Amino acid sequence: MNALHKVPVTVVTGFLGAGKTTMIRHLLEGAHGRRLALIINEFGDVGVDGDILRSCGIESCPEENIVELANGCLCCTVADDFVPAIEALLASEPRPDHIVVETSGLALPKPLVKAFDWPAIRSRVTVDGVVAVVDGAAVAEGRFADDPAKLAAQRAADGSVDHDNPLEEVYEDQLLCADLIVLNKADLVPAERLDAVSAEIRAAVPRAVKLVPTREGRIDAAVLLGLGAAVEDHIADRPSHHDAEEGHDHDDFDSFVLDVAELADPAAFAQKLSGVAERHGVLRTKGFLAVAGKPMRLLVQGVGSRFRQGFDRPWAPGEERRGRLVVIGEKGIDRDAIAVDIGA
Question: Of the four, 146, 247, 262, 331, which is 20 to 30 A from 81 by CA?
């Protein structure tokens, strides 16, 4: 198979809650007859992102965990090695026109791109581009950067303290690997600050990379797909904080799942979650909850102390009305204290 017949793959990266899944859902809705395939790799024990995408019309998921969406696209959720999933998608008939891989919010895209050198798939796929989705509001708030003055004072007081910021490293590695940066949630940032954030991002990336501001992850498929970057041939142009490491894991972060009883007042609960996130430094909260008297389940998503919620689909017949929340934070986050505060 020559290069002209390789299936293009787009890798979508971005920190927790940046809006990757929302953007991909819009992409599915605007596929214009193109047969897309999705591979979703989540961090956390509850498959919220995959469920959000499959809720476009899928009622069940077969054992091989590859489902056909209502619009003819495919969706595959994997926990670890995605190469078998790629091979399965390439073997499907008809074969996908384009494959989109959504990484977890804590994943580094460069090791994933390197995996496309695997002999079994290199001759059959090409990495069309790496798209980094950025939470513009979080960057504007300085969530990924240390305060330089405060840091200098701490180091002067105690030179033995390690001030490495794993959030900033993951965020920067995602930018450094990108061919396109989607500056999402631009509507939440004042125009002057948005310009400053855009300038900060451009200064952090040594290559010429297109940056597109968006709202709710809405961006045309023609912009996202067809970049033609052949990323697997240009790995050396994408520096990383973790280039010297054998591999990357999530040891800097903890995640856990909390069972939540049926709610009487969703708005009050969302306000409570916001306060809990603020007090405990929660990075990401997502899950499905049951609301008393409501036949539909409630999808809750939080980034830091910012939360949004909405009913996504009815509870299926025989499905347990059990609320479950994935909570993600930096290493050492206090699960027991958070559970008590939430009332789980």
Answer: 331
Cβ atoms 205, 176 nearer than 8 A: yes
Q: What gap in Å lies between CA 258 and CA 256, rounded to an integer?
A: 7
Place of tokens 């290069």: 3
9, 8, 12: which is closest to 177 by C-alpha?
12
Sheet containing 210-213, strands listed edge to edge, beginning at the edge strand earlier in sequence: 66-68, 74-78, 36-41, 98-102, 7-13, 125-135, 180-184, 210-213
Please give the Cα distance from 38 to 213 (Å, whole number).
Answer: 23
Residue with tokens 């916001």: 274
Query: Cα separation of 112 and 340, whole Å?
Result: 38
Distance between first and last Cα of the chain:
54
The CA angle 228-229-234, to the nearest 5 degrees, is 155
Q: With residue 337 as reference, give the H or E element that holds it.
A: helix 335-342
Number of Cβ within 10 Å of residue 275's Cβ equals 12
Work out the angle between the directed axes of helices 335-342 and 266-280 (0-180°, nearest 10). Answer: 150
- SS3 state at 256: strand
Cis peptide before 109 (omega within 30 of 0): no
Helix intervals (H) in 30-147: 48-54, 83-91, 109-114, 119-122, 136-140
* Spatial separation of the C-alpha atoms in residues 121 and 128, rounded to whole Å: 14
Taking the mean position of all CA atoms in its chain, how far away is CA 15? 6
What tens digit of pLDDT does each residue of 102-148 get?
A: 887 777 888 888 888 888 788 899 999 999 999 999 899 887 754 44
Q: State how far the Cα of 121 lies from the Cα of 13, in Å rounded to an integer.
A: 21
147-162 burial code (b ≥16 CB/10 A, e <16): eeeeeeeeeeeeeeee
> What tens digit of pLDDT does each residue of 138-161 get?
899 887 754 444 444 544 554 433
Which phi and psi (to 5°) does residue 64 adopt?
-75, -5
Both tokens assigned to 112: 């994933």
Q: What would the two tokens of residue 54 be?
A: 């499959």
